[in-house]
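Researcher: We're teaching a course module on how sequence relates to structure. For the next exercise, students receive a sequence and then see the predicted structure as tokens, so they can try to spot secondary structure elements on their own. Here is the exercise chain.
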Amino acid sequence: MTLTDVFIRRQSDETTLSDDELMKRVRKEDRKAFRVLYDRYKTQLFIYCLRMVNDRDAAKDILQEVFIRVHTNRERFIPGTNFAGWVHTIARNLCLNARRDSKDHTSFDESAAYSGMAGADHDVALQEQLASEIARLPEIYREALVLREYEGRSYQEIVNITGQAMSTVKFRIFKAREILRERLSWGLDDLRGS
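Model: And here is the predicted structure for the students to work with:
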């Protein structure tokens, strides 16, 4: 076995480690383990932050702050708990702080956030209308819907991230879908007519 084989094997081993194992290594100042966690979560957290704060630069800043806090609070993470839930809770709190601190809650063309996603070439007009309607949802409904539908989180994970009761999470997702269904039914009629 050559030195290259050892390096490649070690590198691929790190990427297959669980979040818990990686965090144990991060506690010991292992930069590669931290990088693996960063690479594993950066995209989904960025999209989540972008949908929450409606500002690409702010979402990038929040993403950076999330991982600074992960590193700073690495000793507080309890192995065996849900790392994904923990890191999303950090992101959620930072997004809520940013929205609260922001005096300018400008409208956001969320269709930019969907570009490049799988299936983006289907019905562009419908996709743009859906993105617009999601951006218009009240924040409490939007957050639950984004976590469930776009990040594929289970109800229990959403409960852990938001700190809300299971019944509240289910209601918010139901209500978000109901609002979208009502709003989009008008849009579908308009699209069919054109």
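Model: If you want an answer key for the exercise: The chain has ten helices and no strands. The chain has two domains: 1-106, 110-194.
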